[in-house]
Amino acid sequence: MERPKWVAILTGVVAVLLGVGYLLLGQLLDFRGNLLPAPMEIIFNLKF
């Protein structure tokens, strides 16, 4: 094969792997469940 075809195939494979990895990361983070918000007392007691 010519070099440009190999570059296109490699780029496509990398793009697909990144896309699948992104979707898996989103599923993993979503699987953890709901996160609790910070207590309001801590937020209002901060002194700047």
From TrEMBL:
Entry superkingdom: Bacteria
Membrane spanning stretches: 6-25
Sorted UniProt keywords: Membrane, Transmembrane, Transmembrane helix
Name of the protein in question: Uncharacterized protein
